[in-house]
Amino acid sequence: MKREPFIETRQRRWAKLRSRLERAKAARGDAAERATAAEFPALYRAVCHDLALAKKRHYGRDLVERLNALALRGRHVLYEQRQRPLASAGTFIARTFPRTVRAQGRMLLFSAALFYGLGLFMFVCAYAWPALLEEVLSPEQIASFEGMYDPAQREIGRGRDFGDDTLMFGHYLSNNTSIGFRTFAGGLLFGFGALLLVGYNGLVLGAVFGHLTKVGFGVTLYPFVIGHGALELNAIVISGLAGFKLGFAWFAPGRRSRVGKLREIGRDCAVLIGGAALMFFGAAILEAYWSASALDASIKIAVGAALWVLVLFYFAFAGTVTITGTEQRSP
Amino acid sequence: MTPAPAIVDTLRTLETPEGVELTMRVAGPYPRACAWLVDFGMRVGIYVVLAIGFVAVGGSTRMGGVALGVFLTLAFLLEWFWSIGAEVWFGGASPGKRYVGLRVVRTDGLPVGLTESLLRNLLRPADFLPVFYGVGLIASLTSARFQRLGDRVAGTMVVHVDPPPRPRRSSSDEAFSPPVQLRSAEVEAITEFAERASGLTAARAIELADRLEGLTGATGEEGVRRLRGIASWAEGGRSS
Questions:
Q1: Which residue of A has its CA nearest to B65?
Q2: Within 13 Å and on the Cβ side, how many CA atoms surround A147?
């Protein structure tokens, strides 16, 4: 068969597949689409067959490439994994995320120890040797933190309204989450970026807490930070954890190539950083609308402490209990 | 199987269950930079519009704080989730990539999911270092699939959607049957020569065709004509 008759006899089914692909894009999963969907795989296979023939018979590269593009688009639609990320968010929060965090073992301990350890260290230093404080923070920063948590200024009504809270929400969300994402990405640079950011944040927070405690501003500081801190501080630890996993894969890929190892752990890293992002989001809401509210300090301390217990219980136990045995089917 | 000759090109083939090899063209740094610039321009445009809108809303009243808070939130989402949202829900391509004709796929050629998209886009800062995608450029130039670091972790690559425009061989060539049995790759080479001959100078076409004098039994114009004839013969005169 010559080229022209080949095209003539086939081009109707090529056009049919093409229009079907257009429709698949436009109305995914609508009723009419599903009713005629049965012929799609056959059309796709026919085009693959035509492509193989066109190649074998040297019908010209223009035709081969056109059919190749058509077959690729068909393959995308046919083999696409229909994902509904938003619909599976519940499972993610209830099971996938806490399970993945728990499975990290020593790497999780390392990240937590680095962040909280350096924080505690700097807390003690700033408390006991105030001179050390200025190694970490500039005098302007210290003055600004003191201004924020000075009990004398905080007592009266506070003068923040819903608008200010929303402004702070936007600020906390973009600032803190971006730090988390950068910590994660920094892990890809042999782990150094994550090490730097987790360590630095631990040191600075420790220094600020130590100093404010020493000057007697703890009465305003702790009621404010305890609530959202349960989410935010641990989100930093988990972002760092995801970054350290990437960094560790460079140094100890085990019996795989480095890129192979990175791909292998990629899934877990995506779960970790995705969960951390949700935690940052929750922390921003709490920090803006709850922590800054004019409620009594004792209520905030109580709720904040309960949140810490809740978060720790969540990571310790969420997803460990299988209800009704639905999980058993998956291997 | 004889080892394939080492051809340096940007084509990646994958074998499908349908028994055919599909070819994808991976996109290099230049088209990707163009797509990035388009995306960047669009984001800047959106920032400006948002900023004007929120100043108009918030400048006067007590809503100023709310407006600024919403602006910061949207800016954050634009910065980090622009590509992720587009890749997961709108056909694997950010608007800039779509404009340039690119899309993101997994290395097995299938569309990316949320996991892959999150990884390749949240790891972008690592590729951006030290300035303007320096790491990413080096990583993609040392990769057979032009993968920056984020692409390597996610197992993704960026491909051209459409084939490049390709000249069609003039169909008026008279078929010329080669005196010896040609192998498939040889026919392909001759076909490609015939397709490109119209874009070559006559002298260059003759220079190339003269090297196949043993096959065509002619030199000069006649040699070129016969090679085109072989392409015409290959296309129409054979059945598989």
A1: A163
A2: 6
Q: Tokens in use for A32?
A: 């009419």
User: Is a pLDDT exceeding 70 seen at residue A157?
Assistant: no
Q: In chain A, pLDDT over 70 holds for what percent of residues?
A: 90
Judge whether B151 and B142 are in contact, CB under 8 Å: no
Q: What b/e sequence results for A20-48 when a residue is b if at least 16 CB atoms lie within 10 Å of its CB, and e otherwise?
A: bbebbeeeeeeeeeeeeeeebeebbbbbb
Instruction: Compute the distance between CA of residue B147 and CA of residue A165 in angstroms, rounded to an integer.
Output: 42
Q: What tokens does A82 get?
A: 């229909």
For residue A324, what pLDDT is reported? 56
Average pLDDT over chain A, rounded to whole?
86
Omega of the bond leading into B5 within 30 degrees of 0 (cis): no
Q: What are the backbone angles phi and psi of residue B156, rounded to the nearest 5°?
A: -125, 165
The token duo for B41 is: 């321009």
- One-letter-per-residue 3-state SS of B71-113: HHHHHHHHHHHHHHHHHHHCCCCCHHHHHHCEEEEECCCCECC
Which residues, in sequence order, are bridge partners of residue B14?
A: B22
Give the separation between CA B168 and CA B170, rounded to whole angstroms: 6
User: What span, in angstroms and rounded, lies between the C-alpha atoms of A68 and A51?
Assistant: 7
pLDDT at B239 over 50: no
Q: Where are the domains of chain A?
A: 3-79, 89-317
How far is Cα A322 from Cα A312, in angstroms, rounded to an integer?
19
The 10s digit of each residue's pLDDT in A229-261 is 999 999 999 999 999 999 999 999 999 999 999
φ, ψ dihedrals at A214, nearest 5° = -65, -40
Q: Which residue has the higher pLDDT, A176 or A143?
A: A176
- The rounded distance, in Å, linking the Cα atoms of A211 and B97 is 50
SS3 B13: strand
Q: Above 50 in pLDDT, residue B1?
A: no
Distances (CA, A) of A185 to A194, A244, B39, B43, B74: 8, 10, 21, 22, 22
Which of A 87-126 lie inside 8 A of B, CB atoms? none
**Which A-chain residues 27-86 have CB contacts (< 8 A) with chain B?**
44-45, 48-49, 51-53, 56-62, 65-66, 68-69, 71-72, 75-76, 79-81, 83, 85
The yes-or-no verdict on residue A181 having pLDDT over 80 is: yes
What the block records as the tokens of A97 is: 């995320």
Domain boundaries, chain B: 29-160, 184-234
pLDDT: is B197 or A53 the higher one? Answer: A53
Among candidates B66, B153, B240 on the partner chain, residue whose Cβ is nearest the Cβ of A57: B240
The 10s digit of each residue's pLDDT in B116-143 is 999 999 999 999 988 889 999 999 999 8
Q: What is the pLDDT of residue A319?
A: 84
